[in-house]
Amino acid sequence: MNQELIRQLKYVKQCIVNKEMRGNDWEEQQEAVNKLEEVINYLKDEEGKAVEFDS
Fold it and tell me: By three-state DSSP, how is residue 42 classified?
């Protein structure tokens, strides 16, 4: 499941990066890209570990 999610997040990241933006829009775009990279890295780190959800 994580592999598919990682692929989808990478696709979203690529779509964001391919947009041409400048100024504040570009800065917001970069923040979004950085957050996506953090999520992707987290999922990669958690692969193979059991995911626990608090009730």
Answer: helix
What is the number of residues in the chain?
A: 55
**What six digits make up the tokens of 42?**
């987290």
Q: What is the DSSP letter of 36?
A: H
**What predicted TM-score, i.e. pTM, was given to this entire model?**
0.63
CB proximity list for 2: less than 8 A, separation 6 or greater: 43, 44, 46, 47
Q: What does each of the 55 residues of the chain score in pLDDT, given as a tens digit?
A: 678 888 888 888 888 776 777 778 878 888 888 888 888 888 888 876 655 546 4
